[in-house]
Amino acid sequence: MRILMLTNRVPFPADGGYAIVVHNTIEALLNQGYEVHLFSLNTTKHYIDTRDIDDPIFPKIKFYQYKIDNRIKIKDAFLNLFSSQSYNISRFFHTGCANRLVHLLKNNQFDIIQFEGLQVTPYLDIIKANSDAKLIYRAHNIEYQIWKRLTQQESFIARKIYLGILSKRLKRFEFNILSKFDTIIAISFVDQHFFESLVQSVPVYTLSVALNLKKYDNEYKLSPNKSVGYIGSMDWRPNIEGVDWFLEQVWPNILQLGSGITFHLAGKNIPKQFEIMSNESFIMEGKVDNALEFISRQHVLVVPLLSGSGMRVKIIEAMALGKCIIATSIAAEGINYQHDRDILIADKSDDFYKQILRCFTEKSLIHRIGEGAKKLVEKNHDQAKMGLSLIKIYQDLSAKPI
Q: Signal peptide location in the record (predicted)?
């Protein structure tokens, strides 16, 4: 079976949530003997020089790319207000890219074409007109929900109004596009139920974030100091918002304990507002070469997400490494967890403070939560199991008449 995957960025290296999910899906399909073609938008924001890719699975796929400038431009954003289009989506469409796809489809036959995320769906109609392949929408999250939650958290009135416009247009686009696919694959059962409530005519399945668990044998050393860590892409608004809230509402109370606990912040494109706060108790690590080593080094990981949607891949990775995680219920959304068994849930600043305090005062709590987390991942997030489930979806879909 020949598969074409469309992605809104080049998923190599697999150093972020979206890239890890796509990369592991490709690897699972290759392990089952499938032929995988990958067409990626190589965007300005996440540009990758493909000559530098050093990944053993990259030579095994057929790769195509289109370089696209998706930067937010003030003039374009302003003019977009007078149209009915979603600016979040229109930035990813380019006529040249559409023509490249048409050429690809005229010269290749595919059994399945899988759209990885909402940003590549503007090419759906063009692809339907030029291919008889079955079309799958892989929803990494519910996009409009991210912007709706950002709007709710925003206090500056002008920005709140603008975010509200973006959210409503994105919602309209997202809801209208769903019924045009043959199948929808959600990242969690929570998202699956949401999609099923919108489109009764299209089957919806769940394939959670899945990892190659052999890569998560924790052989890294734990920090000798009491450390609390956070890692995430710091050019994503929900992450910035969450870390800002944590540093303002939670961290000062931890410092008052005088217990020597340090906070370590890692991630790419960290804003200067955080860099200038760095001191002996707030360690700025920036973009790290080895994310798994950073995660393993921490005694506790925090994920103070206040908005967003989908499933946090870094939480699943940390769980696979047997780490104790304190997260908001939004951050843990979609994970089949039990509070105080696999993870510690904290939605208010006082809750975060109390859970961090528990971790460093209750004997064996960190170890107990970490063990529970590791068992959860082994049960629900194994790459090999995910690959077999995905193939079953493909086979069932291919058996249906066009």
A: none
Residues 199 and 264 occupy one common structural domain: no
CA 20 vs CA 32, 192, 210: distances in Å:
18, 21, 9
**Same domain, yes or no: 185 and 248:** no
* Domain region containing 100: 2-210+382-399
Dihedral sign computed on CA atoms, order 191, 197, 202, 204: positive
Query: Are the CB atoms for 184 and 195 separated by under 8 Å?
Result: yes
Beta carbons of 207 and 187 less than 8 angstroms apart: yes
Backbone angles phi, psi at 301, to 5 degrees: -110, 135
Residue 50 identity (one-letter amino acid): T
Specify which residues 6 forms β-bridges with.
Answer: 39, 115
Is residue 211 within 8 A of residue 320, CB to CB? The reply is: yes
- Structural domain tally of the chain? 2
The single-letter code of the amino acid at 33 is G
Q: Report the amino acid identity of residue 62.
A: K
Return the CATH number at 349.
Answer: 3.40.50.2000
Note whether 218 and 321 are within 8 A (CB).
yes
**137-178 pLDDT, tens per residue?**
999 988 878 778 888 888 888 888 878 888 888 888 888 999
Give burial (CB, 10 Å; 0-12/13-18/19+) of 190: middle
SS3 220: coil
CA 320 to chain centre: 16
On whether both 247 and 310 belong to a single domain, the answer is yes
How many of the other CB atoms lie within 10 Å of CB of 268?
15
Q: Express each pLDDT in 110-148 by its tens digit.
A: 999 999 999 999 999 999 999 999 999 999 988 878 778
Dist. CA 70–CA 88, nearest whole Å: 9
Residues 238 and 315 in one domain: yes
Provide the 8-state DSSP code for 216.
G
Residue 6 token pair: 């469309």
